[in-house]
Amino acid sequence: MIDFASLDPLVRPRSIAIIGASDDPTRIGGRPIAYMKSQAFKGTIYPVNPKRDSIQDIPAFADIAALPAVPDVGLIAVAGDAAMEAVAALGARGCKGIIMFTAGFAEMDEAGAARQEELTRIVRAHGMRLLGPNCLGLFNAAIGFYPIFSSSFENGWPLAGRIGIASQSGAYGTHVYSVARNRGLGTPVCITTGNEADVALGDVLGWMAQAEEVDVICAYAEGIRESEKFLAALELARANRKPIVMMKVGRSALGATAAQSHTASIAGDDAVTDAVLREFGVLRARSTEEALDIAYAATKRIYPARNTLGVLTVSGGAGVLISDAAESLGFEMPAMPEDAQAKLKALIPFCAPRNPVDCTAQTFNQPSMIGDFAETLVVDGGYTSILGFFTQAGGSITMGPHIRAQMNRVMQAHPDRLWCMSVIAPPELFRAYQDDGFLVFEDPTRAVVALHAMEFFGQAYAAAPPAAVPLPAVTLPAATPSEAEAKRILADAGVPAVPESACANADAAVRAADAMGYPVVLKILSPDILHKSEIGGVLLDVADAAAVRDGFATLIARAAQHAPAARIEGVLVAKQIKGGTELAFGIINDPVFGPTAMVGLGGVFIEVLKDVVFRRCPFDAAEAERMIRALKGFPLLDGARGRPKADLAAAARALSALSAFAAAAGPRLASVDVNPVFALPEGCFAADAVIEITP
What we know:
By secondary structure, the chain is an alpha/beta fold.
């Protein structure tokens, strides 16, 4: 069991020693003191500076040994050897936490990385937790605790609220805080991790997942370092129904390189990270604006597993815009029942009652009708999310109070729904709508995105725990095997192969082909030639014995020409499969999350279309089937345009078996490539396979 509460001394201390404290409130060593004085920190501050008797009117101490008591946390704002000495001295006094501003460690060079290893050794020897080095710090507004040197607070202090910010980047973490504050969103806690010599993003997410201060977590990540803590934190957040909205950067090759140089993090494969986040119900946001929109909506703590959108609008055009946005997301907007539509038509004959429900500007003459329409949407339509588009009318002096009162009346009667208003209003009226309990957006498209995200969380919270998958006994060969041996290993694990025979000479190849029936496929058989098609090492539609003899000689000659140093075991003769749909299965050993399975359309399509789905290993056949169904090309397997339906159950069993094999194989399994896999009306068979082994 991971002890995420071990971060308490860092985030909820009763006392802090500031090493390198400055009397200048604008300097790095002075800002934290000025901030904590301003916000009435509920603990004791011990400035440490040998050159001053007092710092910012607080008694100062010459060194750590002179401190009158052991501080809960030490803030390091000195450079070089002095920083290392201060950490050791604090550890010797019994301090439990270190926040380290000091830079010049693993983010710099190999020498810096060595210094960081020594720093980590010192910290762990004393049983301390270390935030940083190269860290901007954190804040916990509830106790006035600001061990941070950001200038963000010159423009305002955190608002009361329930959104926690966890960020590997200090500057971007406080950027998110500032944007949130300017939008009126409350972020009581923000923790930035810097180089993560000890405390990593997973620790922070885990602490927030069990912290009473936080209901929703907004995270910024560049690379995941410690998968065990990270995954445990995600699971704890899901178990506690605390949504995590994450901006994970490094999608592009350039972005991944920048992330690594910035934080000395392992970026991993972005597609794998994306799959892991989805697995644990973490929603990946594309921008700060989107992340905060979703976090804002999540503070309502209403997460329908099936979310449907009902729209009440005074603009037909806005209704179309909202419908387009919902359709692009797959956000359901069912039509109102026929009798409910008739009821609304009786109120306003020229309204559009289907959904979106356009109540028209006629309701401005009789404002009570706004409430009647909204009531019908909820009671008869049964929608879990209600979006009211009232644009400037919602913020006007004449109509705004009536609209607000009518919508508020219905919302109070149905508090289990997500209620959202799209209005343009003065700041005070905007806040009044929010105080009533509405989510409020000027842009209705952003509202649709935020509301739809609540279904993502709802489905994650409603999902049953994954089934345990039994792992086979796996003994890997000493080195990368030939295709024939690779398919034998996988067949033993539960991934069936097409009928085939490894043949050392042409006579054996003819006998094998005669036995399995023509046409056959011939392939050069060598553990050193993994990509056979690149040297012309595959022959299709080999129709008779003479063609087998000629083909055998051709393949041996091509191998000698293009790969003269390769070990040649002969030729593989395989039954040529006709029909069916080609899939591709794969395994990669991700440096962060370990063995991860992939499924996609097979043959050349996997490289051209890149229609693939990833999942951490192992998983059961039900999850494997969900992966296959998630492919954009799934209709090709499901009988599109008269094609025969593939044996989806057989394909799912094989994919699940491959995942169990990978999980059991251990770290020497570098990768597996099974392409194509023929998904037939009955059965699923691997036609080619490569298993790469790390020596």
